[in-house]
Amino acid sequence: MRRILISLVALLVGLLVLAGYFFPFQLSSVLPLIIDAALLLVGAAGLIGIGYLVRMHVLRLARKERGKFFSIIFLIAFLIALVAGLALPPGNTFYRNLILGVQVPVEAGLLSVLAVMLLVASLKLIRTRGWTPLSIGFLSSALLSFVFELGFLQAEPGTLSAELLSFLERLPWIGARGILLGMALGGLIVGLRVLLMIDRPYGEE
Amino acid sequence: MLPLICPECGAENPSDLERCQDCHALLMDRNEEGQTKATGDHAESLDLLSGTEHDLPDLLHALRQDEGAPHIEGDQEDLSPEDFVESFSLPDIDERLIAGGEIAEPEVQSDELQDEIPDWLLRIRQRTSEEPDSVGEITQKIQAAQESLVEDERADRQDHFSSWLEKLGDDPESATELAPVEKPVIDDSEEAQPDDEPDWLEKIRLAEGKFDSDGAEDDDENRDGDSLLQWLVSLEDSAQKGPSTSLDEDEKNPLKEETSEEEPGWDEPFFAQEDTQQIRSLEQDASDQPFLDVSHEEQIQADQLAATIGDETALRSIKTHRRARSSWFLQLGLALVLMVVLGVALFYGAPIDSKLSLKPQNQALLTWADTLPPNASVLIFFDVQAGYADEINLIAQPVLNLVLTPGRKISLISSSPAGVLLAEQLFDEMLEVEGMVVDDLGYVPFGMLMAYGMASPANEARSLLGLERDDFDGVLILSDNFEGTAAWIEQFSAKNPDIPLNCLVTAQAGPLLAPYWETGQISGLISGLSDAQRIESVLGESQDAAYRWRAYRFGILIAIVMLVVGATIADEGKNKEEGQGGG
Description:
The complex is a heterodimer. Chain A is mostly helical. Among the domains of chain A are: 100-150; 154-197. Helices cover 80% and strands 0% of the residues of chain A. The radius of gyration of chain A is 26 Å and the shape is extended. Chain B is an alpha/beta fold. The longest helix of chain B is centred in the last third of the chain and has 37 residues, at 544-580. In chain B, α1 (28-38) packs antiparallel against α2, α22 runs parallel beside α23 (482-495) and α23 runs parallel beside α24 (510-518). In chain B, β4 and β5 form a beta hairpin. Chain B contains 26 helices and 11 strands. Chains A and B meet through α1, α2, α4, α5 and α6 of A and α21, α22, α24 and α26 of B.
């Protein structure tokens, strides 16, 4: 019964949203209601996630499990951010610098590591597969993108070299267009499967 | 008494006859067999006896049918057939059977011993001494087998022995009938000298476990076991138990469905010289065991295969390729050099004066910003993570300087948790201009849903965040991910193609969003530090992007060098590994 109810709700909402594309003005009073409910649910899910994360670290600390030191750091940082966010008004410079002063360098450092890892992974591709058409194409594409990004190659507008350079710079767009077409077709298929209740990502099997 | 059935013609004969009335065949064997069948309460022992009695000497048959035989009294009357047989395998009689083929007069050891011997046994001894052929059927069959052995070739002899052993294993009763015929022949000389026995008898005894290989001492008990009669009985006992130990092992191991066992040879060189040899394939449930003809070449190949399999499963030491680890001092030195070089490239040197021209999508966005009405309403959607904050600030600042002018209505909404703070940080300096109005709508948790809600028409009572799609003259998206921006483009611009949509995105999202500009779904696009530096160069406002562009280009050069050198080294490393691996 529960499964049937969930399926019916999902089907009804999906059909309403789909109908909103064809009858936008007739459903103008219903669609904002659905959107508000969805935003509320997403926000509640975020709060539940935060609560679960805090509970996990509290339990780890209580049970004296491994990594409790990091749990202590997390709980202290969380409490500071929570108290400061509730106490200070929005747009407070101290609070903004407090949060961004930690978050920006940490995330930037992670992205730097990610860049190095991608570079090493591209070299691993050569080491594992050797010089295959795939690896040659990958490496040449990466090199060409880097070279064009440098901006050393320039040509007078209207010349043949400028046209050739423009073509090479737009060459990655061809691949991007293929990716977008594939994603669109995949999204269409997934949407149809959900509407036809073949896939049920909203409930258990 | 039961009638005797002739083994040859099947006619019934009185029990007191030795030969058949019709065909004059000897009735002894069947007589005993008939008696065996008649005694059903001793079935198991009689099965054994059926094999043993077949080899009983004529002395025993004559004793049983002799009218003058003494009446067995006392304990001997209740003797089982086995005990009865053993009673005839006295050491002295057996020794004479083996010694000369005829039984000599037993020597009187002492008077007491002479008194203990019953009369019937004395008569047996007397008769055997008088009649040289009284050793009976055993001797006759041995002689017949000896003749057949001489006539047969060595290979045929091996086949006969193999089939004889096989039948012993399969059907003990039939084997007992055939065993004396195909039994290996014992020469008179070998039979006369117990110490100088033939090789095959030695091997069989060794297989039966009767004697040690070094020829154990023959005491009286061993002499009893050494008697030909007991040997045959024990041989048949073992045959009833099973032909070989390998078969027992097969029965113990049900997973082993089929095994091949090589017949034990009379002499090993014999098999070595043969081109082919017969291997009996023992199946677990098979009643008839087929023979496999294996040539010498096939045997060699099988040995090679077995050696290969054994070699594959053999334990080997794994060669570990240990790379020479550079010392931590060297690693630290390289890291310091890199940091210094990057630091110098970042913080020193003049900014690069770019002479690059604007891309069409860049020019389109600048044109949109320049042509905005003075009282235009612009929605800025901020979807940026903290790690991309610096890059997006450099990209957006020249454009925002054009858009954020007094008199315009600016609405700001964010879909990333840190987006609100990042947007405040970005607009902080710009908002110092008097007359600027910015409506901060805060954080919306799901950007795609927000795009759908903004694109959908709504009445005044149910408008999303109090906004109407007709309220904006343009939308500016600041994003660092392709998915969120694409959702906005697909949802908003598809439903509101009249409202221009412009994107300021980071470098990694630009290539995937460029097709949307080509199709006209977005009005303008600026992606990455490269485009920001071009716009800054064209507008000539500041040189922040030019300074960063210097370091950025240096980083790209390092990446190119690492990619080329690393690919070369990696390919050499792969070739080395293949060479070491034997590939």
